[in-house]
Amino acid sequence: MEGANLSEVTEFLFTGFPKLQDGGLLYFFPLLSIYTFIVIGNLLIFFAVRMDTHLHNPMYNFISIFSFLEIWYTTATIPKMLSNLISSQKTISFIGCLLQMYFFHSLGNTEGALLTVMAIDRYLAICNPLRYPTIMTPRLCTQLSAGSCVFGFLILLPKIVWISTLPFCGPNQIHQIFCDFTPLLHLACTDASMILVQDVVHALAILITGLIISVSYIRIVIVILGIPSAEGRKKAFSTCAAHIAVFLLFFGSVALMYLRFSATYTPFWDAAIALTFSVLAPFFNPIIYSLRNKDTKDAIKKLLCPQKVFNVRGR
User: What's the rounded Cα separation, in Å, for the pair 98 and 276?
Assistant: First the structure.
């Protein structure tokens, strides 16, 4: 009789969005502008690197792949956010929720793995420059890039499959702006201790990855500070400054969201932190990689105005 009273949840309702009559359109157009900028900015970086032979080296290869991943990372959540802002029914199907979580976190894990590879790449280039060309070969570069993608997309499959088998019998309100593990698991009619287990696993993965990257960059900074000439220090630091900025922005916002453990935030701060790592961090990444890097800026100019660049070089 008890089983008969349980109704299976087929869709979830997001409660983190303002209602249309409460100014949903005021958020829609800024978010649409940010999403458009993210897609166009990262596409420019991706194609500029791919089409400029001067940038065909491991560092820029990793940057171009990271930019490509950023497009799909934001596409996993922002289009649905935009839809919810102008819709009276702010819902998502159970399958849609699982797919959104899988692709969003798989792409995020892939980016985290790639940021680790980029940190190691900069460590080898600056701390071991003589052996760098023989270590970071094109083949190894391809293997590391592919390995990051395979790791990112396979590591979450067992978790998603497990969640798909859980019973959800109500309520169906997700107190967030997109589907995420903890808010969804709180709605499952099952043992809540599993939520703590997945939080610990998630936190350990973030801490280990962040520690590897931090140690690499600390070592890099120490080596740079030991360079005798100011010009040499400036040149060496400029090659990894953008990577450090992106790392701090990405992992800083992720840590705020997923290293909270028992701490709780108000719905406003939950949504604000989620927006930081799902929208604002990807928004600033193209700016960091284009404005902080002369080679990237030149490649983008060459991509957009090839005739003008050709004429300038001809003179």
Answer: 22
Order of strands across the sheet that contains 11-14: 91-93, 11-14, 173-174
- Residue 101 is predicted with a pLDDT of 95
pLDDT in tens, 109-150: 999 999 999 999 988 988 888 899 999 999 999 999 999 999
Long-range contacts of 161-165, Cβ-Cβ distance < 8 Å, separation of 24 or more: 163/98, 163/101, 163/188, 164/98
Burial group, residue 178, by CB count within 10 angstroms (0-12, 13-18, 19+): buried
Contacts of 60 (CB under 8 A, 6+ apart): 49, 295, 296
Q: What is the pLDDT of residues 231-285, one digit of tens each?
A: 777 877 777 788 888 888 888 888 888 877 666 777 778 888 888 889 998 999 8
Q: What is the pLDDT of residue 175?
A: 85
CA atoms within 13 A of residue 12's CA, in its CB half-sphere: 25
Give the residue-averaged pLDDT of 62-70: 94
Find the helix packing angle between 294-304 and 306-314, rounded to 10°: 110
CA distance 247 to 119: 9
- Quick one: tokens of 265? 């935030």
Chain-centre distance of CA 166, in angstroms?
Answer: 27
Provide the pLDDT confidence category of residue 226 given band limits of 50, 70 and 90: confident
Instruction: State which amino acid sits at residue 313.
Output: R
Given CA atoms 209, 243, 69, 49 in this order, what sign does their dihedral have?
negative
Reduced 3-state DSSP string for 49-72:
HHHCHHHCCHHHHHHHHHHHHHHH
Distance CA 281, CA 216 (A): 22
Measured CA to CA, the distance from residue 154 to residue 253 in angstroms comes to 24
CA distance between the termini of the chain:
86
Predicted pLDDT of residue 135: 93
Q: What is the rounded distance in angstroms from the CA atom of residue 90 to the CA atom of residue 112?
A: 30
- Give the phi and the psi of residue 155 in degrees, each rounded to 5: -65, -30
Report strand pairing: 173-174 vs 91-93.
unpaired
